[in-house]
Amino acid sequence: MSLITFKIATPKHVVVSDTAYMVVLPDTKGLLGVMELHMAMLGRLKPGVIYVYDTELHVKQRVFCHGGFFRFTDKNELIILANDIKQLDDLNRSEAEKLLAEWEAKILDTDRHEELEKIFWNIDIYRAAIQATYDVVR
Fold this sequence. Notes:
Layout (H helix, E strand, L loop, with lengths): L3 E6 L4 E7 L1 E6 L2 E6 L5 E5 L2 E6 L5 E7 L2 E5 L4 E6 L2 E3 L5 H13 L7 H20 L6
Parallel strand pairs: 1-9
Antiparallel strand pairs: 1-2, 3-4, 3-6, 5-8, 6-7, 7-10, 8-9
Helix pairs in contact: 1-2
């Protein structure tokens, strides 16, 4: 079984640097599994869970990503640059539901496009965080 190397970093620090059989990413077009010999690519991450597999069937790590970017090279290296990362156990469903309601209430209070982008991005984050608290792979 061949492995890929991967790093997950935020603007503040490298969260993890390890090897994996496969990493499943919340790409903007859906879930994307990256394994050895996957074609080189760049992509944008939406808010969601990153799954790290150490074998074909075993998830060894799950983290919640607030969005960001990734790059997979032809040398089987995956680099994930995330806006923020949280451990799934650190997510609080009731807090996320409260924050989601606060951001949704702001939609009607603004007509500026820049503010609406930020509002909708935060709504996506908290909806994904709530969904992640129901993660059945835990």
